[in-house]
C-alpha cells in the first residue's frame, strides 16, 4: 500500500502477556479501536512500542500480524532503531518482506554520529529499500539533530519523504515549509504540540495518547482540517493534561495505564520497565480518571 503522509498515525504500544510474550489478542483489540476511530496509519516498534526490548523475531511477528489485522484499510509503518548501518538495512529488508508500507527511522543508536555519518546512514538504507522513509528527528531524546542542511542532502533520495518533527521547536514547521515546500512531509511527533503544528502546516500527527483515546485524537485532526478550529481547540484543551503524560520518561507506563482505563490495553510492560506504583501511580491515575470522567461529546468528525 502506498503511504500517504497525512492524518493521525498511532505509535501503538506492544501488548505483553504475564509470561512476557506478545499478547496478540489484546493487541488486536487496540488495533480494532484505532481503525474504528478512523486513524490513517499504524506505527509499530517505536518508543511507545518498547522497541529496544523487542527481539527481531517479535518485530517481524508484529509487522506480519498487524498487516493481516488492518487488511489493507491503512498503511503499516515499522520503526528502525539500529546500532549499525548493516543492521538497519537488514531491518528494512525484513520490513518489505513482512508487508510494511513504510519506515520510520531513527539516527544510529548509542553512537553519537556526526552530521556526515548520520546522513550516510540514512542514505544507505534509502538506497537499499523501495519503501518510503520518515526520518524521526528527536534530538531531545536521541541527542542527534537532523538539521535543515542535512535534509538538503537526504532529499536527494527520492524515498526519503517525511520527517517526524520532534525537536519541540514549533517554528521548525515553518522552516521546513519555507525550505522544502511539499517535498518533505511533516508529521508532528510531540503530543503537546500537535494542534499547533497542524495549524502551522504539518501534514499529520504520530500520536501517543491516541493509544487510549483514538476518537478524540482523530476528531482534533479532522476538525482542524475542516476549518472548525474552535471545536478542535476545545477538545485539545480537555486533552492537554492527558497529552502531557506522553512527554515524560515513563510515557510507556503512563499510556498503558490510560489504555486500561479506556478498556483497550493492559499495564504489562517488559523489564527493566516496571508498572507505576505508589504516589506516582496515584498522580497519573488522577489525571487519567479526571479525563475519562470529562470526555467531551464529539461531533460527527468522520463526515466533515
TrEMBL record:
One biological process term in Gene Ontology: N-acetylneuraminate catabolic process
Gene Ontology cellular component annotations, sorted alphabetically: cytosol
Keywords associated with the record: Lyase
Superkingdom of source: Bacteria
InterPro entries xref list: DapA-like
A Pfam family of this chain: DHDPS
One MF annotation (Gene Ontology) recorded for this entry: N-acetylneuraminate lyase activity
PANTHER family for this protein: N-ACETYLNEURAMINATE LYASE (PTHR42849:SF1)
Family: Belongs to the DapA family.
Record's protein name: Dihydrodipicolinate synthase family protein
Organism classification: Bacteria, Pseudomonadati, Bacteroidota, Flavobacteriia, Flavobacteriales
Amino acid at each position: 500500500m502506498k503511504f500517504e503522509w497525512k492524518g493521525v498515525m498511532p505509535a501503538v504500544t506492544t501488548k505483553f502477556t504475564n509470561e512476557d510474550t506478545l499478547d496478540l489478542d489484546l493487541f488486536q483489540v487496540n488495533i480494532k479501536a484505532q481503525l474504528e476511530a478512523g486513524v490513517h496509519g499504524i506505527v509499530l516498534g517505536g518508543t511507545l512500542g518498547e522497541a529496544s526490548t523487542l527481539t527481531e523475531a517479535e518485530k517481524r511477528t508484529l509487522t506480519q500480524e498487524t498487516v493481516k489485522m488492518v487488511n489493507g484499510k491503512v498503511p503499516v509503518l515499522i520503526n528502525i532503531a539500529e546500532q549499525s548501518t548493516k543492521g538497519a538495512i537488514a531491518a528494512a529488508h525484513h520490513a518489505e518482506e513482512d508487508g510494511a508500507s513504510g519506515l520510520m527511522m531513527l539516527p544510529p543508536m548509542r553512537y553519537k554520529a556526526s552530521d556526515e555519518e548520520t546522513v550516510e546512514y540514512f542514505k544507505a538504507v534509502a538506497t537499499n529499500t523501495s519503501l518510503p522513509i520518515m526520518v524521526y528527528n528527536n534530538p531531545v531524546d536521541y541527542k542527534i539533530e537532523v538539521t535543515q542542511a542535512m535534509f538538503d542532502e537526504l532529499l536527494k533520495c527520492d524515498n526519503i519523504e517525511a520527517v517526524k518533527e520532534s525537536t519541540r521547536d514549533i517554528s521548525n514547521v515553518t522552516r521546513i515549509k519555507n525550505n522544502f515546500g511539499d517535498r518533505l512531509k511533516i508529521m508532528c511527533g510531540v503530543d503537546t504540540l500537535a494542534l499547533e503544528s497542524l495549524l502551522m502546516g504539518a501534514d499529520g500527527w504520530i500520536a501517543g495518547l491516541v493509544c487510549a483515546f483514538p476518537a478524540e485524537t482523530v476528531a482534533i485532526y479532522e476538525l482542524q482540517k475542516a476549518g472548525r478550529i474552535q471545536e478542535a481547540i476545545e477538545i485539545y484543551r480537555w486533552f492537554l493534561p492527558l497529552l502531557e503524560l506522553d512527554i515524560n520518561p515513563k510515557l510507556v507506563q503512563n499510556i498503558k495505564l490510560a489504555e486500561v482505563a479506556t478498556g483497550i490495553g493492559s499495564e504489562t510492560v517488559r523489564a527493566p520497565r516496571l508498572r507505576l506504583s505508589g504516589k506516582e501511580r496515584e498522580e497519573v491515575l488522577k489525571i487519567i480518571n479526571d479525563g475519562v470522567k470529562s470526555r467531551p461529546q464529539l461531533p460527527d468528525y468522520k463526515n466533515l
